[in-house]
Amino acid sequence: MTSSNIFIIGLTGGIGSGKSAAAARFAEAHGIHVVDADIKSRVVVEPGRPALHQIADRFGDAVLQEDGSLNRAVLREHVFQYPNERRWLEQLLHPLIREETVNDLASAESPYALLVSPLLVESGQYQMTRRVLVVDVPEALQIARTTLRDKVPEEQVRAILQAQARREERLRHADDVITNDRDLAALHHQVDQLHQFYLTLSTGAKQ
């Protein structure tokens, strides 16, 4: 748990599951404070940050853009080919991401806060939360959505899926599940119902 007494819901799901769409609904329709670990992962490698120097020292200038910022696509392609390199990168970045995340969550003023992370289970971030919400979709739909959205080959999407927790493992940690195999209206309906439930839980926790 964080040092704050804020009621934290962890939101996760595999690539292409619709995590961002669910989080956006919580934020825009209900005013919930959302902390996105993916965004924090970009912050900790911004130019001038120590982590970027360490990454460039290890992988060379090929992982840098002309302006000195991180070329995330090149780095991602490299580390997914070499599991040892991916583990090194995770050991460097996860503590930094956690610190940024904890500080942001502590500033929440909504009745509860949402921690959005694709690696909520794998990184142990779920231990910071009171409940885990999984956005679940069939793997074939994840692949179809991601190849369309990111314009990347199916093989690359499958490599990312391999690096993420298995669907069964995520569901094993889930307290709540959104099934996102229909349209956006169906997703919003499920979010709206969960919001009312989380309001009740967070209010009860403060009494």
UniProtKB/TrEMBL annotation:
Binding positions (ATP): 16-21
Keyword set, alphabetical order: ATP-binding, Coenzyme A biosynthesis, Cytoplasm, Kinase, Nucleotide-binding, Transferase
Cited InterPro entries: Depp_CoAkinase (IPR001977), P-loop_NTPase (IPR027417)
Substrates-to-products reaction catalysed: 3'-dephospho-CoA + ATP = ADP + CoA + H(+)
Entries under CDD domains matching the protein: DPCK (cd02022)
Molecular function GO labels: ATP binding; dephospho-CoA kinase activity
Pathway the protein takes part in: Cofactor biosynthesis; coenzyme A biosynthesis; CoA from (R)-pantothenate: step 5/5
Subcellular location: Cytoplasm
Function: Catalyzes the phosphorylation of the 3'-hydroxyl group of dephosphocoenzyme A to form coenzyme A.
Annotated protein name in UniProt: Dephospho-CoA kinase
